[in-house]
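INFO batch 0412 | record 1 of 1 | parsing
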Amino acid sequence: QPNYWIREVELDVKIFEGETKVEALITCELNTAVASPGAELVLDGEDLKLETVEVDGVSLAEGSSGYKLTDNGMIITGVGSSPSFKLRTAVAIEPEKNTQLSGFYYSGCMYCTQMEAEGFRRFTYFLDRPDVMAKYTKVRIEADKKKCPVLLGNGNKIGEGYCEDASRHFAVFQDPFAKPSYLFAIVAGDLGGI
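INFO prediction complete | emitting tokens
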């Protein structure tokens, strides 16, 4: 079992040509069966360009009191002593160069996800395990309206609109049911109808 459970997830996915920005806000709760307050948080991550890490709004630096990047992800030691906290990470990924077709990738006329079995770690830093069940309370997807006129995600669409840059639009989804990360899905592209 992991030192922490992830209870809620908010994601902001901004798709640009050649790079996608993924900001994740995850609510972590201490797993008291195996860990004590202040235990390190070990996250899976692969082919991610880390931009920022924050715990409860405080930026962490790479080092012994913040976080350490590893070959398989990231270890966060600067979690504090609270049994629960909010972790915010921002990463950049390149779905157009993702030829593994795992995680978030571009194929044909659309961006799509393949998270099973361990693809979520190629999307953002996360506890990419089937026993971690989280609610995805807000997933915002933003993209160019001409290239990606259709934006889809798990759950219910709770918002949509145009961005400040009128060539871009967004949709927001909420999934009320807890699920493992391998069931997460989004699609953005030029999809037709039947």
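INFO post-check: The mean pLDDT is 96.
INFO record closed
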